[in-house]
Amino acid sequence: MVQKKILQEAFRSAGPAVNLYLRLKLKICPLLEVETHVPAGGHVVDLGCGNGLFAALLLLGSSARRVTGYDLDRSKLRVAERLRRRNGWERAEFHEADIVRMDPPRADVLTLIDVLYLIPRPGQEDVLRKCARALPRGGTLLVKEMDTRPRWKYAWNWFQETVSVRVVGFTLGRKFFFRPRREFETLLRSLGFSVETVPLDRGQIHPHILYVCRKV
Ligand SMILES: C[S@@+](CC[C@H](N)C(=O)[O-])C[C@H]1O[C@@H](n2cnc3c(N)ncnc32)[C@H](O)[C@@H]1O
Question: Of 128, 131, 118, 135, nearest to 178 (Cα)?
């Protein structure tokens, strides 16, 4: 698991606002643990990469990974690009794209970290279908989302997302499209994945959940 300190060091150059974001995010989201589920080598494509936080974890977690990130938010991509340049991450690149419209490139691993809930359901299905096509047999897809259970954690998450997306405007979007765990599992299996579900909400106020999928 990547040390928090090493990640904070890499983010130091990104300015106080991004640093504060990093500290808050690491407190409320088990991203360090999610990284341990990503294979240690190969080309990882991070769909909805935001400001490059998870890409940074992937790069710091293994020197055998190459990462390409896509997002439609230019201001977040600018932060990702600044981090890439200042840290000399030659194994990373970031591009502007709408992941609902694009075809992901062939990759060993695809990651969707807290992204699908911002996309209407038919779009989610399209994205996942295209992910299945882009992976070789045995390739890995990681989907990190929020579960709809337990109810109180789901309600808290809804409130917090409403503040950060609709009030503060921290993330582009207006509505949320969370899916219950069983629905995700059924959908992912119907697309040709084996699915291991990892609840990550222990000790957390948010109902974090991770689907570790392998193309069969
Ligand atoms: C909650 S943030 C998560 C960012 C990053 N994955 C992380 O964990 O730090 C959701 C991200 O998904 C991006 N996003 C939402 N819909 C998208 C779409 N259709 N195409 C590309 N990016 C999208 C947003 O711009 C935002 O950066």
Answer: 118
**Residue to substitute in 33, 67, 115 for testing ligand 1 pocket (most ligand atoms within 8 angstroms of CB):** 115
Question: Would you kindly state where each structural domain of the chain is located, as residue ranges?
Answer: 4-215
SS3 154: helix
User: pTM for this one?
Assistant: 0.95
What does the pLDDT look like over 172-200, one tens digit per residue?
Answer: 667 899 999 999 999 999 999 999 999 99
Ligand 1 centre to CA of 115 (Å) is: 5
Residue 172 near ligand 1, beta carbon < 6 Å? yes
**CATH code given to domain 4-215:** 3.40.50.150
Ligand 1 center–CA 59 separation, angstroms? 19
pLDDT digits (tens, 9 = 90+) for 43-97: 999 999 999 999 999 999 999 999 999 999 999 999 999 999 999 999 999 999 9
Ligand 1 site, residue 215, Cβ cutoff 6 A:
no
Can you spell out the DSSP letters for 163-189?
IIIIIS--SS-S------HHHHHHHHH
Ligand 1 and 145: CB distance under 6 A: no
